[in-house]
Design a protein that fits this description.
The protein has about 325 residues and is α/β, with parallel strands linked by helices. It is built from 7 helices and 10 strands. It has a single domain, classed as Zn peptidases (Aminopeptidase), CATH 3.40.630. About 5% of the residues have low confidence. Bound molecules: N-[2-(1H-imidazol-4-yl)ethyl]acetamide and zinc ion.
Amino acid sequence: MAIVLCAGCGGAGMVESSPATTIQDVAIPAFNADSAYANVARQVGFGFRIPGTDSHKAAAQWLADEMTRYGAEVIRQQADLTAYDGTQLPICNIIAQFSPEKNNRILLAAHWDSRPYADYDPDEAYRNKPIDGANDGASGVGVLLEIARLIGKQAPALGVDIILFDAEDYGAPEWVGGDTSSTWALGSQYWATHKHKPGYRARYGILLDMVGASGVGFYREYFSERYASHIVNKVWECAAQLGYDGLFINEEGGAITDDHLYMNQAGIPTIDIIQHDPTSDTGFFPQWHTHEDDMAHIDASMLDVVGQVLLAVIYGEK
Ligand code: AHN
Ligand code: ZN
C-alpha cells in the first residue's frame, strides 16, 4: 500500500488554495516497520560495533553490502582517529549515494557504532562494559536502511545521500569529567573536514539518533533550531499532517552535541531527530548508556512513525 500526500509536505502543499502550479500529488512508498526492526536486530546480532573489533568490521561490511544491493554507489571512508584516551580507532564512515549525478540533493545520517561503556547503568560493576546500542545507534540506521531499500525501488525527485557515521559514541565516559564535548562524533568531525567529494553540497540534512524507544518523543533540538529552523518546521509540520504531533512535540529540547553539529559546521543545515525525555535523569530515553539499551526496548511502531515522516519529506521535495 502507498499513501499519497501533497508535494512539499509541510510546505505550500496542503493548505494552499491556488491550483496546479506547485501542487502535485506524489505517491509515497509504504515504510515497512518490520524490515526496519529486522535491520536493527541484525546490527545488534553482529555484537558490539566498536572500532577495532571483528564485530565492527563484519557489521560495516554488511551495511555497505546492503546499501549496494539497494542500488547505492557506496564509498567507505576509512581513517585512523584518536579517541579521548589515546586509543587508535580505525573508523569507517559508510556513504551511500543515490542518483549521484543529481545536483539537487539531501543528506540523511545516523551513527552505526555502539558505545564501549554503560556510564549510566544502575550496576556500577558493569559500567565499564560495552552496550548493545539497539536504540543508541542501530535504530536510526535501521530506519535509513529501509528508506534506502525504498529509494532504490522508486527514486524520489532529488538525489539522496545516506551517511552512516562511525565513532559517534566513543566520547569520554562520565567518570573522566570536564568538558568532553569534542570527544564525541569523531566520524562526522572527520567527514566535515574530509568530504567524500570535493565541494560536496546538499540542500539540507536530517540526522536520526535514538528513534526506537517506546513512547519517547522528539523535541526541537537547540542546534537544529539555530542552524536549520526551517527544516525543523518542515519535518514537524509533516509529522503533524500525518497525525504524529503527539510524538513530534512542538517545544524546545536541549542542546545536544551530536553528528549534526559538525554537519552544520560543514555548511549543511542539519537537524537532529532524537528522542528526548524531559522526565529522565539524563534527558534521553530511560535506558540510555545502560545495558538495557537492547532489542527488548525497541518499538517497531516508533521506527514506523519516523520512517513515514521521513518518506513524506523526501518524496514531497521537488
Ligand atoms: C553528549 O552526551 C555529549 N552527546 C550525546 C550524543 C550521543 C551519545 N548520541 C548518542 N550517544
Ligand atoms: Zn550514545
